[in-house]
Each structure stands twice: as C-alpha cells, then as structure tokens.
Amino acid sequence: MTRRLPLTGLVLAVWVLGGCATGRPYGNFVATSAALDQPALAAQATRQLAALWPPARTRFALTQPAADTFGAALVGQLRAAGYAVQEAAAGSPALGTAPVDPAAGLTSEALTLRYVLDHDAGTDLYRLTLSVGEQSITRAYLVQGGTARPAGAWVRRE
User: Fold this and answer.
1) What DSSP assignment string belongs to 3-15?
2) Residue numbers of the domain that contains 62
3) 98-105 contact pairs (CB < 8 A, 24+)
4) What is the pLDDT of residues 49-67, one digit of tens each?
5) What is the distance, to the nearest Å, from the Cα of residue 33 to the centroid of all Cα atoms in its chain?
6) Residue 111 lies in a domain
7) How many distinct structural domains can be found in the chain?
8) Is residue 107 within 8 Å of 116, Cβ to Cβ?
9) Has residue 78 got a pLDDT over 50?
10) Could you tell me if residue 150 is inside a domain?
C-alpha cells in the first residue's frame, strides 16, 4: 500500500503538468455561413494591432495556416497596413517567439501571431483573441442587425 501512494502521486503530478504543457487550439471556430462579417473583424483587429505594434517595423509569423475566411482577410489586411507576414504552411512546425516591447522599434525576429475566433451560443457573443508573442488582445462582439458590434473594449494581457 505504501508503494502505491508515491506512484499514484507521481502519475497525478504528470497528468496535471501535462495539461499545462499542451497547447491551446488556435484558429477559426465559427461557421463560414454565420451572420458575421469576418473581413470587418479582421480590419478592426488590424487597426488594434497597428496601435500596439507599428507597421513597417514589425514582422509577424503566423503559426497556423490561415485558410479560413478570417485568417485570409487578416493576412491581407496586415499586408495592406504595411506588415510583413510570414504564413505557416499546413503541418509546419511552430515558429519561435521574439520577446519585444510593442513600443520598441524594429524587431530582430518575426513575432508569432495566432488567433482564435469562436462563438458562445449561450450568450450569442463572438470572441476574437490575437496572441502576439507572449501577449494577447481579446475583444467580444455581438451581432445586431447583421453587423458585428463590439461588446466591450479590447483587453490586453501581457
């Protein structure tokens, strides 16, 4: 019985720590047929990124394929705003991060960029989270009259 207790504790510790190490899923979890103007969300996201990370001085490296409606619009909007964007190919390994203060100048490496766009059917809110390096910005949206309206301000986690 005394040998089982340490083994059980070890298994439990590995299980708990393993949950911390697994990456969160990134991507677009909203159906393309949803009444949500995803290119408009990409434009708003680009404006917010430009307020925090200056275009023409910041390079982004997507760590996920941007094959969905939002991702393709985001890449196009970022490039139009003056960002250099490295797209991830399907099945490519994750790219490294460059810890850089957004107010600082030109980054020596591309900052990793990931996004999550999802929908909560219970509240009918859409949530957009953009992760840049080790930081993230999030905003909730509510669709009213066929238009996505912000349900609050951008929230930044450093």
Assistant:
1) THHHHHHHHHHHH
2) 25-157
3) 98/133, 99/133, 99/134, 100/133, 102/52, 102/53, 102/54, 102/132, 102/135, 105/57
4) 999 999 999 999 999 999 9
5) 21
6) yes
7) 1
8) no
9) yes
10) yes
